[in-house]
Amino acid sequence: MRLLERINLLAHCSLLCLALTASWNAAAAPDPLLAGCWRAVKIVQSAPDGTRMEDTSGRCTLRFTDDQLASTCATASRPVTSTYRYEIVRPGVYLATMVASTFGTSLVGSSREYEYRVDGDRLTTASQLPATAGAGAGARVETQASRTACP
Contact at 8 Å (CB) between 41 and 123? Predict the structure, then answer.
């Protein structure tokens, strides 16, 4: 291979590596609009059969840091907290992987994508729950939250 061909090949490989690195870094960068604490003012779970459950109690909060998300919901006996690692996988979508939960460990390691939109002090998320064995498509969960002070 001639020297000029080698230089061109090296240049093309270098540009490809830079492009891949840049796109990976952009996908993994946290969204500063998510950072902080949010109180869920409305959670709607819609089942594939059309039934809906709605919670407007405000008992659940989310706390986003650079790469971690903590979800805490007050219950009659004690708060339940689940911790996730999350990353922005494309604009308006983050992938959350559960790393711990005070409720149980059966979902630790599971991941789910969430569509999200921040509009000032309002956060809207939507996600499709995984299907249960033999039940086909899972429920869709939509949450509306308002920014709140972190404890």
Answer: no
> Is residue 135 predicted with pLDDT exceeding 90?
no
What tens digit of pLDDT does each residue of 10-68 get?
A: 233 322 233 333 333 344 578 999 999 999 999 999 998 889 999 999 999 999 999 99
Reported as half-sphere exposure (CB side, CA atoms, 13 A), residue 15 has a value of 6
Strand 68-73, strand 122-128: pairing: unpaired
β-bridge partners, 112: 96
Nearest to 148 by CA among 84, 88, 56, 63: 63
**pTM (2 decimals)?**
0.75
Backbone φ and ψ of 64, nearest 5°: -100, 130
Residue 25 phi/psi, 5-degree rounding, is -65, -40
Q: What is the pLDDT of residue 23?
A: 34
Maximal C-alpha separation, the chain: 75
User: Which SS3 state, helix, strand or coil, does residue 109 take?
Assistant: coil
CA distances from residue 55 to 16, 43, 103, 146 in whole angstroms, order as listed: 48, 5, 19, 15
